[in-house]
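Handover notes (outgoing to incoming on-call)

Open items:
1. Reverse transcriptase: sequence verified, structure written out, both below. Nothing else pending on this one.
2. Nothing else urgent.
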Amino acid sequence: MAPESTNKNKDYNMEDFIELSAYEVKDLSCPRCGERAETINHLFRECPITVEVWSTLLLQNVLIDVNRDFEQWLTRVFEQLIPHNCRIFSCALWAIWEDRNLRIHNKKFSIGKKIGNFIINYIAELDGLENRKLVKIKEKMNWRRPSREFVKINFDRAFDGQNNFSASGIVARNDEGLIILSCSETHKEFASAFATEAIAFRKAVQMGMENTCPIVIIEGDSLAIIKKCNNKDQDKSMIGAYISDIQQMVNRSKHFVFKHIPRNANALAHKIAIEILKRKVEDYLEKKVLEYAKNQKLLEWVHEPD
Ligand SMILES: [Zn+2]
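Reverse transcriptase structure tokens:
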């Protein structure tokens, strides 16, 4: 159905919106500015209120191609904008159409800046919701047992900067989630938390070398260390010597996989390191963890996927 040219106050629905793109309605003046006939081009590209919306959104560039027909214009804009701006652009098309209908139905008037700010806030709210969702997904990531015939070793460290004292916590588990070995070490006079992280990692690789399993997964929550060890080039940083030790061990025989995981998935190794920092007593235990880490072990056990 084509919009009736004589009825200025006619109500429009979505079908009319589609019709507007097919029919150039030349004798119906714009309900927003009243200056020009309301065509699809006027509504989304020419109307002064719309121009102000694009300018508030810092998307004035979408108005450069004014001579293209509406469909070509949309295609071109979507091709040229980065994904985040495509999102703002789509939201703006909807908001402009909504504003137009509110004027007709409810006699509600908004200036372009207000519509633009509404869009900015709306997108910010959506982004916030998505970020919260991502954080929730991340929070849910607990330790997972390895596949059959793999062994998984988690490592972490705790660092007491004031006393230059640090501790490593390392725990190896099999495909049933059972602890094969747990180990803790203390270190004095290391310059940085970063170095102690590298030492804990090296110890984890040593434990992996001693294990009979052909494939060893080493997991830690330090992204920088994991990245360095996955990189085959020579590391020239202050912890280069440790990284070089690790790379040499790894090149020998076994297949090692180095994985970065969130802190939640590394909780048992973290707990061991923190406790050893307090107690300053090293341990090397087969098939169990120390008393203090038992609760953490149980927690991880409960959260494991089937
Ligand atoms: Zn207008």
